[in-house]
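Weekly modeling sync, notes
Attendees: S.R. (lead), two postdocs, one rotation student

Agenda item 3: backlog of single-chain predictions. S.R. asked that every request posted to the team notebook include the full sequence so nobody has to chase files. The rotation student volunteered to paste the first one in as an example of the format we agreed on. Action items at the bottom.

Example entry:
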Amino acid sequence: MKNNALLIWNIALTLLVGFLLVKQFSGPKSSGTESAAGQTEAEAGLNIVYVNADSLLGKFTEFKTQQDALAAKEKDLDTKLKTRGRALEQEFNAAQKKIQEGLMTPNQVAQEEQRLMAKQQKLMEDQERMTKELLAETETLNLQLEERIKGVLKAVREENGYDFILSYGPGTGVLMVNDSLEVTDKVLEKLNAEEKK
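Predicted structure, as returned to the notebook:
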């Protein structure tokens, strides 16, 4: 009797699971009279698009201009520091030559050594200060550009009813995309138009 009850219970559960699987995977039947407005968001699907991060930054003229300006500034600072370093090296060599030729007293040697060490310390401090300033400037510009891009992305999303705008490119979490969903050009058009205002 107990075995018969278990058998009936197993058959009933199997039928129930089978019914639920058929119902789940058969999908909703469309009568053709439902309107898109009557569908829920889950039935209609999300409106997801993406921008190609590399193309966006590569063709965003203000970003390119500011990157070029920062690169020029970095090159200029590097040139100045290298010039000062070479001049200091020449002073060290000249002092070394005078010491070897015996043209300096021990007191003069100590003074020259202190002077050159102070100059070297100043050069290193200036290099560190300039590097920090350049990094801070770069960070500030990147934050400003990021805010601009976010503002434009928000406007594009609202204008077109997108639910999500993803970033696609190396290092992003998006591994594969449908090219027809790319809106990079639309975003670039707005970004570059804002710059001209």
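Discussion: group reviewed the output briefly. Residues 45-196 form one domain.
Action items: rotation student to repeat for the remaining queue; S.R. to check formatting next week.
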